[in-house]
């Protein structure tokens, strides 16, 4: 099994690059943002709870997203590997993920961290908001709240993987194809 984490602030291109990576490497894509939006569109109780946090640009409580990832792992017993996108976003989530993967004897191979300047992030998110239909993308205040959550709770997750020599920084600016190539180069070294 080959498991990777695509890491980076909101708007760093994780979703775009994930699509390309899963098709090249045959991985199962697990995006907590997509899973949460799916729950919201079905108006489940989990979705309704999550929406209150997401609308404000805050992180959804750890137990909610950890439970969701745990079920998604169980639902895909024959996956060749997983690409985690938008997860883990806190230290507690990182530890929980390690425990879940230990049960499968399939550790994280690498955490690829996309590096993008803050001005570029805000520009990209506002642009995405014009077409994505995501209410958290067309309000600059909510975008700033998401970036603050990233700095206060999520950025330290990179240190967790650095301790295990699994963190790799990727320049997240340039064309989509250039960034994809940088990611593939790092993945191919570890596969
Ligand atoms: P982006 O990274 O562009 O903000 P996502 O689709 O990954 O977009 O996430 C959208 C929102 O969903 C986040 O702002 C947060 O409220 C919630 N969310 C997604 N993943 C997690 C997670 N692992 N832990 C807590 N909240 C999450």
Explain this structure:
The longest helix has 15 residues, at 118-132. The protein has nine helices and five strands; from the N terminus they run βαβαααβαβαααβα. It has one domain: P-loop containing nucleotide triphosphate hydrolases (Rossmann fold, 3-Layer(aba) Sandwich). It has a five-stranded parallel beta sheet. The chain is of the alpha/beta class. Helices cover 59% and strands 14% of the residues. The structure holds adenosine-5'-diphosphate.
What topology emerges from the helices and strands here?
Elements: E1 3-7, H1 14-25, E2 28-31, H2 32-41, H3 45-56, H4 62-75, E3 82-85, H5 91-103, E4 108-115, H6 118-132, H7 140-154, H8 157-163, E5 167-171, H9 176-190
Parallel strand pairs: 1-3, 1-4, 2-3, 4-5
Bound molecules: adenosine-5'-diphosphate.
Adenosine-5'-diphosphate binds at residues 10-11, 32-33, 36, 53-54, 57-60, 65, 86-87, 89, 93, 136, 146.
> What is the class in the CATH system?
Alpha Beta
Question: How does the overall form come out from the CA principal axes?
Answer: globular
> Got a strand count?
5
The CATH topology label is Rossmann fold
The CATH architecture can be given as 3-Layer(aba) Sandwich
Please identify the structural class as seen in this structure. alpha/beta
Instruction: State the domain count.
Output: 1
Question: What is Rg?
Answer: 16 Å
The CATH superfamily title:
P-loop containing nucleotide triphosphate hydrolases
**Strand content bin:** 5-15%
């Amino acid at each position: 099994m080959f498991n990777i984490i695509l890491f980076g602030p909101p708007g760093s291109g994780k979703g775009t690059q994930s699509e390309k990576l899963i098709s090249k490497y045959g991985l199962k894509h697990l995006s907590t943002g997509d899973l949460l939006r799916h729950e919201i569109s079905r108006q489940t109780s989990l979705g309704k709870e999550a929406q209150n946090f997401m609308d404000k640009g805050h992180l959804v409580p750890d137990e909610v997203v950890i439970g969701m990832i745990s079920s998604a792992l169980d639902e895909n017993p024959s996956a060749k590997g997983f690409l985690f996108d938008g997860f883990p976003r806190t230290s507690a989530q990182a530890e929980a993920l390690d425990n879940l993967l230990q049960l499968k004897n399939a550790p994280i191979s690498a955490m690829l961290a996309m590096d993008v300047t803050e001005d570029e992030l805000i520009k990209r998110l506002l642009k995405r908001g014009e077409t994505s239909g995501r209410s958290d993308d067309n309000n600059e205040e909510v975008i700033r709240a998401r970036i603050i959550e990233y700095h206060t709770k999520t950025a330290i997750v990179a240190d967790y993987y650095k301790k295990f020599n699994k963190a790799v920084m990727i320049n997240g600016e340039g064309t989509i194809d250039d960034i994809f190539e940088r990611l593939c180069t790092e993945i191919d070294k570890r596969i």
